[in-house]
Specification:
The chain contains 2 helices and 7 strands. By secondary structure, the protein is of the alpha+beta class.
Length: 130
């Protein structure tokens, strides 16, 4: 499938100039405009290039670390399977694809990850980084 980088560039320009940053917290799950990316980096989909992400770390009101989700229930050291309340299908956080983003990319909140699952995500990410 061919990626439309020009269309994403237009959307990204709009996000940069027109979007206000929403209020957000760690452990929240948001649909985020991740874009059309290179190679095996996780892309967003649809007109707004959206993908669900977990807010892992808030550095300030502008910048945060996120982990994207995959809708496939994958196993292994690079994934953590979860079920999120609020209508999101069972899926997995992709630990290997941690990203620093601007909060302008956040579009709307889907729900919250449980404290227990969030602590497990952090534990597995720390193990992966060792």
């Amino acid at each position: 499938m061919e990626k439309d980088f020009q269309k994403w560039h237009s959307e990204k320009t709009s996000i940069h100039h027109d979007k206000k940053r929403p209020f957000f917290h760690i452990r929240e799950i948001w649909f985020c405009s991740l874009g059309a990316n290179v190679g095996f980096e996780q892309d967003g989909s649809g007109d707004r290039y959206l993908r669900p992400v977990l807010i892992l770390r808030k550095f300030n009101n502008e910048v945060l670390w996120v982990l994207p989700f995959t809708k496939h229930d994958k196993k292994g050291k690079y994934y953590f399977s979860v079920t999120i309340s609020g209508g999101m299908a069972p899926s997995a956080v992709i630990l290997s694809q941690i990203r620093l983003i601007d909060a302008k990319r956040l579009q709307y909140k889907l729900g919250d990850m449980s404290e227990k699952d969030f602590l497990e995500v952090k534990k597995r990410l720390q193990a992966l980084l060792k």
